[in-house]
Amino acid sequence: MKTLLGRRTRALAAITVTAGLALVAGCSSDNGGSGKTTVKGVHLVKAGQLTTCTHLPYPPFQSEINGKVQGFDVSLIDLVAKDLGVKQQILDTPFENFKTGAFLNSGQCDLAAAGMTITAERKKNVDFSDPYFEATQAVLVDKKSGITSLADVKAKGKKLGAQAQTTGEDYVKGKGFDPISFESSDAVLNGLRTGQVQAVVIDYPVVQGWLKDKANADAFKVVDNLKTGEQYGFTVKKGNTALREAVNKAIKAAKADGTYKKLYEQWIGPYSASVASPAAS
Q: What domains lie within the chain, and their CATH numbers?
């Protein structure tokens, strides 16, 4: 997944799980005047809300639609917030902080949700939830380029793009490519659209959503689907077992009652249980 350094951090309007949803009774104050509370055994950095760090835009997982942050990740974390009886509020932050856990450690966010791949390196800094999505990397090309595979990009001397410091970029670098780096998924796709590159490597769910636009589908196509074994997870501060378990509980319940499938089809596309709903790691 992705990263961006130096992006301006901006708070976004709180996303209401249910209009007028109130705090559950029995919330206790924590750390005096710090504003923290404990809800159902989960310590929250700000009273009355579950504060989520993300990195925008990254459709279909999170992006602003009609002035509101929406997407698959947003909807799943809404379920966690609902179980806790609080509202979700989203903070847009540089993705680099997701890898280091900086915003979790500084108490700015309770958790991070940004379509982030679970890796051994990242586990050194943050605790991941159970995996909630299995992702593959797509090779998307301009139909006029004549490219038919990832290998063809190099063979034909074409330019390849990828999002900076992502698993997709790491993958192609490991294959001997020197891709042009872009700061966000939108920038990657715009680079392809404007001819800066003739092919890009990017998470397949992003491509699925992008190709729903007929103009994009008419001009671009997927020529390779790279099964890299990536799974997405939400992250919490190291040692925050209570919140991690609350997230896992919400994901498990959503899969059991059909909510996960409904949200998957709403935001991503046709649902395949073997791909979309990986077993817990």
A: 40-132+233-268 (3.40.190.10), 135-230 (3.40.190.10)
In whole angstroms, what is the distance from residue 72 CA to residue 65 CA? 13
d(C-alpha 85, C-alpha 206), whole Å: 31
Place of tokens 């919140």: 243
How far apart are the C-alpha atoms of 186 and 204, rounded to whole Å? 14
Q: What is the pLDDT along the chain (281 residues), one digit of tens a residue?
A: 544 333 333 333 333 333 333 333 334 444 444 467 899 999 999 999 999 999 898 888 999 999 999 999 999 999 999 999 999 999 999 887 888 999 999 999 999 999 898 999 999 999 999 999 988 899 999 999 999 999 999 999 999 999 987 888 999 999 999 999 998 888 999 999 999 999 999 988 888 888 888 999 999 999 998 888 889 999 999 999 999 999 999 999 999 999 999 999 999 877 765 444 444 33
| Residues 183 and 95: beta-carbon distance below 8 Å | no
Q: Are 138 and 221 in contact (CB under 8 A)?
A: no
